[in-house]
Automatic annotation (TrEMBL):
Subunit comment: Component of the GATOR2 subcomplex, composed of MIOS, SEC13, SEH1L, WDR24 and WDR59. The GATOR2 complex interacts with CASTOR1 and CASTOR2; the interaction is negatively regulated by arginine. The GATOR2 complex interacts with SESN1, SESN2 and SESN3; the interaction is negatively regulated by amino acids. SESN1, SESN2 and SESN3 convey leucine availability via direct interaction with SEH1L and WDR24.
Similarity comment: family membership: Belongs to the WD repeat WDR24 family.
Region described as Disordered: spans on this chain: 579-603
Function (record text): Catalytic component of the GATOR2 complex, a multiprotein complex that acts as an activator of the amino acid-sensing branch of the mTORC1 signaling pathway. The GATOR2 complex indirectly activates mTORC1 through the inhibition of the GATOR1 subcomplex. GATOR2 probably acts as an E3 ubiquitin-protein ligase toward GATOR1. In the presence of abundant amino acids, the GATOR2 complex mediates ubiquitination of the NPRL2 core component of the GATOR1 complex, leading to GATOR1 inactivation. In the absence of amino acids, GATOR2 is inhibited, activating the GATOR1 complex.
InterPro entries in UniProt: WD40/YVTN_repeat-like_dom_sf (IPR015943), WD40_repeat_CS (IPR019775), WD40_repeat_dom_sf (IPR036322), WD40_rpt (IPR001680), WDR24 (IPR037590)
Record field: catalytic activity: S-ubiquitinyl-[E2 ubiquitin-conjugating enzyme]-L-cysteine + [acceptor protein]-L-lysine = [E2 ubiquitin-conjugating enzyme]-L-cysteine + N(6)-ubiquitinyl-[acceptor protein]-L-lysine
Organism this protein belongs to: Sciurus vulgaris
EC top class, as a word: transferase
Name by which UniProt lists this protein: GATOR2 complex protein WDR24
Record's signal peptide: none
GO cellular component entries: cytosol; GATOR2 complex; lysosomal membrane
Amino acid sequence: MEKMSRVTTALGGSALTGRTMHCHLDAPANAISVCRDAAQVVVAGRSIFKIYAIEEEQFVEKLNLRVGRKPSLNLSCADVVWHQMDENLLATAATNGVVVTWNLGRPSRNKQDQLFTEHKRTVNKVCFHPTEAHVLLSGSQDGFMKCFDLRRKDSVSTFSGQSESVRDVQFSIRDYFTFASTFENGNVQLWDIRRPDRCERMFTAHNGPVFCCDWHPEDRGWLATGGRDKMVKVWDMTTPRAKEMHCVQTIASVARVKWRPECRHHLATCSMMVDHNIYVWDVRRPFVPAAMFEEHRDVTTGIAWRHPHDPCFLLSGSKDSTLCQHLFRDASQPVERANPEGLCYGLFGDVAFAAKDSLVAAESGRKPYAGDRRHPIFFKRKLDPAEPFSGLASSALSVFETEPGGGSMSWFVDTAERYALAGRPLAELCDHNAKVARELGRNQVAQTWTMLRIIYCSPGLVSSASLNHSVGKGSSCGLPLINSFNLKDMTPGLGSETRLDRSKGDTRSDTVLLDSSATLITNEDNEETEGSDVPADYLLGDVEGEEDELYPLDPEHVHPEEPEYVLPQEAFPLRHEILDTPSGPEHLQDKADSPHVSGSEADAASLAPVDSFSLLSISHALYDSRLPSDFFSVLVCDMLRFYAEQGDVQMAVSVLIVLGERVRKDIDEQTQEHWYTSYIDLLQRFCLWNVSNEVVKLSTSRAVSCLNQASTTLHVNCSHCKRPMSSRGWVCDRCHRCASMCAVCHHVVKGLFVWCQGCSHGGHLQHIMKWLEGSSHCPAGCGHLCEYS
């Protein structure tokens, strides 16, 4: 009842009545404005300039202001405003740079009153002073704002924003002399109309052009701004520095913003592209709009609340050539369709669960959430029951905490900081990363790095210390490990050439493969004799099958004092006398008779007679004992996907970077980009900025490699004329002087540039450092005491 009485008083004893309705226009509208008594609305565009009466059931055309035989560019309007003190006074901003005032009280058909032609480019915005009937303000694409006194024929003040274009100007409702202006460079400026030489305050509000602004009708210092960065921000201008109070994230660029009357935290927005709807937001709940109007089929170009004391009626014009009146109770409410349930896994291992109040209340014994035990990441606002839409999507939040230390992620941080991803040979990178993983207790990851080294590195690089194949207790043979495979799967000719008949006549068949680089001894049935001692932990893991090789990795069984015997490669014995005859055959014969020797060793030792120097006579190397690395590409890709599916994107990305083109070509670009972005997000959550930047630099994905370049913006002003520098070079467009001139050597700085924030002079880093070692005065001679730390 209190609000209704205020509305009735403001409207002169009769409340507004009406319904949701629309009418078709002759052409697309660019802007609309409502008269003081809320009974008429003016619609302006490039080809339309009409006044409509707002009746209870429909819009009725009252006046067409486009009169005359010849079309004039003065009638092509970019903006229109109706004075709130004089119901006969209108002003339009023309696309040709002319500001036109209109007097509806003139008896003639042509209502045009005055023309101001001082702007050189399109005028984007015009605004009347809220209490002065003769003061008009305009903002233009030429970067200037002009204040006109309608009793004179020219402007009384000109304000230069030192920017490319002015997108909006708005007089403050509470402060008589103050107005705000927004610019395409993202800045917002506050001016005093009595001081046109400089602005009172300037701050960067958005990352991109700021298209609109609106002063709060009740709170004196609140200013809402909207920009191309799809955000609406509310600023408190009463503090010494502009303070951001609220931020609303929309889905498209914000073209218009208007505070809702009688609702302190509500504002309406519309977009200039993509999105055709009008949204009403509660700035305290910035993620879901409180109401949404969906009547338009093209971009909405202008919105206005019908009366400054009535929150129920909203008028809008669009490029679909329609004028609409929206009744707030007919708006769709997205909060009704919002899901009140959600689940999120926290950074420290906690699980947050939100559900309806009724569901949580029905469960007995639940304690309320008292807040994060470490640092508060989010807060739950206590809802006001009197607030509109407050109870539609309310949820109760429950947080299930893990045991202290149970969800520690220290291994992730240590791994990210200690991993080596580039700058060394592949073998060293794999060894280093395997060592890091092993020290952190991640044995499976360490084993994976070791296997990658074996697959992609040449056999000569595998050290005997890291790979030792122990066979029994009494002998060790340093053999390079190749991946296990079945000889039955190979070509028939290969098996027949290398199969030797045993003199003892047993049914088992061992195969000896000889080449120039390695020796492979394979026992097909993998049986152990009674005296053998083979460790249980194998490098290749638990292998099932009868003909797979198992090479144990056990450095403790290395016996360096026993000489290693290598089978000769010559087909025939050497004809000259050999002085140092190896004792291999006798040694092997002795071991063959020992009961503590495995069957494979005994068989290998008995392959040749004792008195023969050459154990085998072959004419050429049978085959290369190493399979090509491409043979394992499918296996490696499956391994990367396994780690990614397990949530260890750190391992997937690290292997992807280390292996490079060896494996990158086998994984699609979209999957790689997903892994990179996930890992970078985790690194940034743990504040590992240097590691994150290194991963971005080493990435070959275009979408990822530009992440550390797109989020940094450096605004540079000329040190001579203070004008913002363009992105085309280091020469100022205004004074044509180079801004990056060294104050010591007086040459252009083409590399690292350092400058004093006090006097703006600077130069080469080394020159400035050397100068300040002997003097604290500025080398440019300005007298400023510069400091370098």
